[in-house]
Amino acid sequence: MDTSKRDVNRTDDPAANPDPITKAPGAHPVGTGIGAAAGGVAGVGGAIAAGAAAGSVAGPVGTAVGAAVGAVAGGLIGKGVAEAVNPTEEDQYWRQNYASRPYAQPGTSYDEYRPAYEYGWSSRTNYRDKKFDDVEPTLGQDWENRKGDSRLNWSQARNAVRDAWDRVDARHRP
Q: Whole-angstrom Cα distance, residue 44 to residue 65?
């Protein structure tokens, strides 16, 4: 292989979130997958309506085409939203600032709060069309499954989750 023409933007470094196909840094396969799934569902719904209008012959074909187009479009949208949030940057910000937050208990390490911040910034991208207050019950119910090694219960983690959600919302609002 001729290394003189090697693409300097390619990487295999796992910390750079390389795209699994192109190896370009900054890929967010989870966001892409979530967007693809959501787009696929939306595409099926649109295709069913279009297929029904076109008649029974176009129905199954319209459904299949609509699902594929919806999945691709949704995947690109999901990737765009996920890439707008840089997990490394968010983690660094909260690591430096968590102790100054009014809910941070003195003597509690960042490692206790980190899962809550991550849950907040990732949830904001997952619920990009929703308000925190609308999804808070779901977030609270899911916290036990998401908190990892954190000992914080939902009432202790809620403000950190909200803080990270609001930061992403403010920074990446269209």
A: 8
Q: What is the pLDDT of residue 85?
A: 86
User: In Å, what is the CA distance from 158 to each residue of 99, 112, 113, 170?
Assistant: 16, 13, 10, 18
pLDDT tens by residue, 21-60 = 556 566 555 554 544 444 444 444 443 444 444 444 455 5
Q: Which residue do the tokens 């390389």 mark?
A: 18
pLDDT confidence band for 6 (50 / 70 / 90): very low
Q: Going along the chain, which residue ranges are E strands? A: none
CA–CA dist 84, 79 (Å, integer): 8
- Which string of b and e fits 133-146 if b means at least 16 CB within 10 Å? eebbeebeeebeeb
- C-alpha–C-alpha distance, residues 20 and 15, integer Å: 13
Please compute, for residue 136, the number of CA atoms within 13 A of its CA located in the half-sphere on the CB side. Answer: 14
Classify the C-alpha dihedral 27-174-116-163 as positive or negative: positive
Share of the chain above pLDDT 70, in %: 51
Q: How far is CA 20 from CA 4, 16, 33, 79, 97, in A?
A: 23, 11, 13, 13, 33
Q: What is the reported pTM?
A: 0.55
